[in-house]
Design a protein that fits this description.
The chain has 425 residues and is mostly helical. It contains 14 helices and 4 strands. 44% of the residues lie in helices and 2% in strands. It has a two-stranded antiparallel sheet with strand order 1-2. It has a two-stranded antiparallel sheet with strand order 3-4. A hairpin with a 7-residue loop joins β3 and β4. α4 packs parallel to α6. The longest helix is centred in the C-terminal third of the chain and has 28 residues.
Length: 425
């Protein structure tokens, strides 16, 4: 599933996954596509057409920069809050924020990351509460969420909704429709003991209406693993286990098709991701019908976030290293705001230096894609440089140098006079 730019409709996403449609140009790529690009409004991060991913990339950027101790410009925050619809949801983007939203095209993915961004920023409780109410109102009867309301649910949208609820302080177990909670909705997409051993713990994008077994999807597994381990953005987990994650236990060899227990879901997802990363050279792979397999940067990034949240940073380290080395291709040299922000979130979660992630200062790179921030974190001095001491009102360095120079001149003059005097004696 392509997510560097949020696709504008669930139908288009499904078509891409089944190979029945050509992929559109990425929304945050300047000059991409053949249709006239929407103008980039003031306050928005990124230089490309925001039609499909405006709220998505803005939310990720604000979350990542706030975590990096950058205070975003008021215009950047106001743009995001101004995109919220009257019913509490967010669209992918609306050019005229004064016009009423079309409820059918509101975007659960955009709403999820917007809620997490506003929680990270602080001071936006009313907007967050309205977002939570939107999730309650648009939950499917099976407990899941769709990209757009009224469609079948999918693992990615459900996982992002669960993470948003967790960020807002709302227990997903209490958000239910027809007796099915958000956790129940997420569990429906996780492959259990009835699946082949190498697929267990992974997540399918959508279940098949006719019951045909579906294969695990990389991005679904990455985003769902974060939710399954109780995580949200930004990932700041300090839980750590030196042991490898435990694969799902199947005592009867998979003869019984039951849902993965909630208590085992996160660990099973971590075990699946660890095995997939090891088999794929520390990155997940995107495979679409008719196309050659390619590295899936987004899935790898979300998978790393899920592993760190699950207490397995050691298993995430290889993927983080790979992203540090190869991430420039994903960010298109730092011009893709969503990709750059996601890399910054990964670096922060893995406790890497975001100012030198693969030789790139991600904070500076992302900051340059939006309005000038109100404040930035104080730059740290180089490790080899001694710390500067604050002047407490005494003689500063320049005064000391000046006094030393005067003493030196005076001493030299005195010595010269003494020599002259000695010669005369």
């Amino acid at each position: 599933m392509l997510t560097a730019a949020r696709l504008g409709a669930a139908a288009l996403t499904a078509a891409l996954l089944t190979g029945t449609a050509a992929a559109p140009a990425l929304a945050d790529t300047p000059g991409a596509g053949t249709a006239p690009a929407a103008a980039v409004p003031d306050g928005l991060y990124g230089k490309g057409d925001p039609t499909y991913d405006g709220v998505w990339r803005q939310s990720l950027a604000l979350t990542a920069l706030t975590t990096a101790k950058v205070t975003p410009a008021d215009s950047a925050v106001a743009w995001l809050t101004g995109q919220q619809c009257a019913d509490g949801g967010w669209p992918s983007y609306r050019a005229d924020a004064s016009a009423a939203c079309d409820a059918k095209t509101e975007d659960s993915n955009a709403t999820a990351v917007a809620v997490q961004a506003l929680v990270a920023l602080g001071g936006h409780q009313e907007a967050v509460d309205k977002g939570v109410q939107w999730f309650r109102a648009n939950q499917n009867p099976d407990g899941s969420w769709a990209y757009n309301p009224g469609n079948p649910g999918d693992a990615n949208s459900t996982a992002l909704a669960v993470s948003a609820l967790l960020a807002a302080g709302t227990d997903p177990a209490t958000v239910a429709k027809a007796g099915r909670s958000a956790f129940d909705g997420l569990a429906a997409f996780q492959l259990g003991c009835a699946a082949p051993a190498e697929q267990r713990g992974g997540f399918v994008y959508q279940t098949s209406p006719d019951g045909t077994p579906a294969e695990a999807n990389g991005l679904a597994g990455g985003q769902a693993s974060l939710a399954a381990t109780g995580g949200r953005l930004p990932v700041v987990s300090t839980t750590r286990s030196d042991a490898a994650p435990k694969a799902l236990a199947c005592p009867d060899g998979g003869a019984t098709a039951t849902a993965v227990p909630r208590a085992d879901s996160g660990e099973a997802a971590s075990a699946y991701l660890t095995a997939q990363l090891a088999a794929g050279g520390q990155h997940l792979t995107l495979t679409l019908p008719g196309a050659a397999p390619a590295p899936d940067y987004a899935a790898t990034a979300w998978g790393a976030l899920g592993l760190v949240q699950g207490g397995h940073p050691q298993q995430a380290a290889g993927a983080v290293d790979w992203l540090a080395k190869e991430g420039g291709s994903w960010t298109k040299g730092g011009t893709d705001a969503a990709a750059t922000a996601t890399l910054l979130l990964v670096a922060q979660a893995a406790q890497r230096d975001p100012a030198a992630f693969g030789g790139t200062d991600l904070v500076q790179q992302l900051t340059a894609l939006g309005p000038a921030p109100k404040a930035t974190a104080a730059a740290s001095a180089p490790a080899s440089a001694p710390a500067k001491k604050e002047d407490k009102g005494g003689l500063n360095t320049y005064w000391l140098l000046g006094i030393g120079l005067l003493i030196g001149i005076g001493g030299g003059l005195l010595l010269s006079l003494q020599r002259k005097r000695g010669a005369k004696l």
